Amino acid sequence: MTSLLTRSSVRYLLRHPALLALSILGVAVGVAVVVSIDLANSSAERAFRLSSESVTGRATHRIEGPAGSVPDSIYVNLRVRHGVRDIAPVMEGSVVVEGYEGRTLGLLGIDPFADAPFRGFAGPDASFDLASFVGEEPSMLLPSAIADRIGASPGDRVTLSVRGRPMSVRVIGLLAAESAGSASDLIVSDVSTAKKLLGMPNHLSRIDVRAESESALRPIRSVLPAGVRVERSSARSETLEQMTRAFELNLQALSLLALVVGMFLTYNTISFSVVQRRRLIGRLRAVGVRKSEIARSIAVEALLVGLVGTAFGILAGIVLAGGLLQLITRTINDLYFTVSVRQLTIPWWILVKGAALGVGATLFAAWMPMRSAVATSPADVLR
Questions:
Q1: What is the dihedral of CA 194, 200, 201, 207, to 10 degrees?
Q2: Are strands 61-64 and 229-232 parallel, antiparallel or unpaired?
Q3: How far apart are CA 356 and CA 353, in angstroms?
Q4: DSSP 314-378
Q5: Are 369 and 267 in contact (CB under 8 A)?
Q6: What one-character DSSP code corresponds to residue 131?
Q7: What predicted TM-score, i.e. pTM, was given to this entire model?
Q8: Which of 147, 317, 346, 377 is most deeply packed, by most CB within 10 A?
Q9: What's 100's DSSP letter?
Q10: Using CB atoms within 10 A of its CB, is residue 121 exposed (0-12), middle (13-18) or buried (19+)?
Q11: Distance CA 274, CA 303 (A)
């Protein structure tokens, strides 16, 4: 009986290729949307996390002001008058590099002499001239990947712009991906250069602090003016992640909606195939085919449709994620914060999730048509 059912199913599917293609397409579209959105979200989250780690470095706390900046006199007061050594001034912002497709990149302004304990961009083993880095001429360290893209090398001048204000900056060194950590889209400059670029001559974005315990922060807090506070370095990243959580939830809901639409399409096509084969199923029941065998045959058909549709959907989702990643990144940049993502990451668990959802949704969609087929009475059909 099994071979009879198999031949019957194969013959029917070969005679109705459009119906088979429609079923596979429904599964593939749903899986592709789910996988692409998950991959794009995961890549954007990873880029933000790695970028935050590169910018934060080994700082445990940060001194911040009420308006998103602190007067640089606070840093001078802490370091010169009160002898606090485990602090470093930081300028942080966004710039556009001329010739780099108008992409927004992060800018990190540091004092190389105070910053060495915090980040690995500068220090005794720096591969660039520190005197040139802190000199009067605006200079910067450019990620090597970006330098290759725009054809720049050490000694060249590159135009950076902030809010439409251009400024020519000299490249004095390149940041290789392994030496710059994960800051593959982060430009590093001296604090004074960053101040000029960002238009903040007398302010800092923040002051990074390294403190072994809360007691080490008391002397700092005691001399800070009203409104200036000391926060954990991880607090900002946690806040930004919470801001984007609703946005990511909406995207995930949209992807699941696409899966439901695909499941509905699969349900309709399988139901239609069962209705078309109702007389055949009745005849098979009349010659002794059991209900369980018919149910198994339809389930195997649905499983094959689910597997093929899921395979196509995963491949299409990976391709679609590349374009979707740019749209998601642009939205995050416009609404929340600056993040630059140049590489799509493909975690294995997202592919497994897409496969499970695709096959599971197909089998679920086939459940009702399968029950209808099993309930077919030979007497009613042959009457």
A1: -70
A2: antiparallel
A3: 5
A4: HHHHHHHHHHHHHHHHHHHHHHT-----------HHHHHHHHHHHHHHHHHHTHHHHHHHHT--H
A5: yes
A6: H
A7: 0.73
A8: 317
A9: T
A10: buried
A11: 15
CA–CA distance, 43 with 320 (Å, rounded to integer): 13
Looking at this protein, which amino acid is placed at residue 17?
P
Q: For residue 88, give both structure tokens.
A: 């470093």
Q: Which amino acid is at 286?
A: A
Question: Residue 259 is encoded by which pair of tokens?
Answer: 């899966």
Q: Residue 114 and residue 98: Cα distance in Å, rounded?
A: 30
The CA distance from 89 to 42, in Å, is 32
pLDDT for 308 equals: 93
Helix (H, G, I), strand (E, B) or coil at 258: helix
Encoded tokens for 200 = 């903040």
Q: Report the alpha-carbon distance of residue 279 to residue 295 in Å, rounded.
A: 16
Nearest residue to 308 (alpha-carbon basis) of 31, 8, 12: 31
CA distance 10 to 192: 74
What CA–CA distance (Å, rounded) separates 88 from 124? 16
Q: Which long-range contacts (CB under 8 A, 24 or more apart) does 1-7 make?
A: 1/288, 1/289, 1/290, 1/293, 2/293, 4/284, 4/289, 5/284, 5/289, 5/293, 5/294, 5/297, 6/297
Answer whether residue 180 shows pLDDT above 50.
no
CA distance 98 to 146: 11
Exposed, middle or buried by CB within 10 Å (0-12, 13-18, 19+), for 238? Answer: exposed
Pairing assessment for the beta strands 186-190 and 104-110 based on DSSP bridges:
parallel
Per the structure block, which two tokens stand in for 346? Answer: 């493909």
Question: Percent of the chain having pLDDT more than 90?
Answer: 23
Nearest to 208 by CA among 121, 337, 141, 114: 114
* Structure-model confidence comparison of residues 233 and 355, the more confident one: 355
Class of residue 276 by CB neighbours under 10 A (exposed 0-12, middle 13-18, buried 19+)? middle
Q: Is the pLDDT of residue 365 over 60?
A: yes
Gyration radius (Cα) of the chain, Å:
30
